[in-house]
Amino acid sequence: MIDKHIVFLVVDDFEPMLKVTSDQLRSLGAMSIVTAKNGAEALRMLQKQQVDIVLSDWNMPVMTGLELLKAVRADKKLSRLPFIMITAEAERNHIEEAIANGVNDLLVKPYTADRLATRIEKALTSRPRASSPVGARPAARREAPATAIEPVSQVAREPVRPTILIVDDAPDNLQLLAELFKDEYGVLIARSGELALGICQSNDPPDLVLLDIMMPGMDGFEVARRMRQHPTSESIPVIFVTAMSGDEARLQGLELGAVDFVTKPIDPVVLKPRVRNFLRYVELHKHLQADYDGMLEIARLREDVEQFTRHDLKGPLAGVIGLVQALADDDSMNRKQVGQLRLVEETALQMLDMINLSSELFKIETGRFQLDPQPVKIDEILRRIVEISRASFAEKHLVIAVDTDVPVGKEMPRALGDAMFCYSLFQNLIKNACEAAPENSQVAVTLNDETPLRIVIQNRGAVPAEIRGRFFDKFVTHGKPGGTGLGTYSAKLLAEAQNGAIAMEVSDPDNQTTLTVTLPRYAEAAGMNGLKHVDPVVIQNN
Q1: What pLDDT digit, counting tens, does each position of 243-267 carry?
Q2: How far is the CA of 374 from the CAs of 9, 162, 316, 522, in angstroms?
Q3: Considering the entire predicted model, what is its pTM?
Q4: Which of 93, 253, 281, 284 yields a CA-CA distance of 20 to 30 A from 475?
């Protein structure tokens, strides 16, 4: 049973479906249920009142379920809210988009109340799929049991025969059709529309309905109409089997969602392949839920890896870098010890760069990265990287220098961004410059005291003409054995993720390449209080 204190928001533009879903939730123990007829109305409600979980249809006017999901994940107060998408959507790219935007679960129509309860429990107990900026209000949730998420392979069921429900008030017709299909399929029979509707809306609905039209009480048209108003039965294929052969009856049946129209007397040679074809479609549709569950499971596993690399690795690694830097700056260390510590620092920075490339770049590329901007001592980062580069490229006898136009005695300007991103960004660029520079030449790094901050990296050696237009593209490399082509690509993404920019200029006469990075400047006068007014930045790629 569902915790009665949980507040549900059900979103669907079809009024009967809203009512049925609400009734299902009440039957499961829910007491607080609010409804909305489209995504826009739902978003207004979410911004005004407490809601613990959203159940949204996919296709709706004004604002679709996917658009609502994106709006919820972009709102810092709502971004952790559990969100279940209810859908018959079969376009894989649409499902991938929903998963990329942080949907907690996908419930494929038709579904039963039991399946709905299972998905709700899973969404409420699993880890949020979208990170929340500082200050966001987490939704009410419970601790997840150890088995909350199981690999798809562990929950797969043995294949079972599809089930056909035959509905007719004439016993002879029921017997004829039952005998025709009993060897291939499970067969259920119903002699009235009321009984048929109860079977279709139960927790064990049929896969296909062969439905007579002319029956006493509730006729076939009314059965089909009511089936389309219930989540358990709305997607069950219906084949009308009837003595009515007029165009008007056929049109009415098709308007009610019938997939075929077979006239009596029945020709088994014609009916059996039709049923077989539709049940083949049903089987494919059944696999959608398993496929979507598998896609979600993969996304969750990837997010677990990201969580591990971002927090469990980056935090201690940053601590190691800080300790090594402090030791290297200690006056008691001799020159040899300092050199060894710089090598340790370089290795740690390379590891940090690998973590950024493996986790953060994926988030940036998929539009799910959120920046929490903080003041960054960019001059210290540049000097550290330059010192490391001097040791790494000592055999090339390069003159690697960092300079600034900041007057002596004035406090160094700080950037507003992410310190670890800046390490990776400038380590890649300065390393590339040193690799490209010929022996006995100079690599100059200059911090310009401007708004935004402007960092210029110059080296001898012009970027080859054939890759200049693609210099910042992914996997572009030239003349570097084993090069991945990710260095400048990652630098561009890391700069843009901090609301900065990067540009490259080549001077052929001087045989010189210039890279210019701009980053937002931290306003010292505002102090740390100024950060309270800086909203986290969400990078969204089209």
Answers
A1: 877 777 777 777 777 778 887 888 8
A2: 36, 59, 19, 8
A3: 0.47
A4: 93
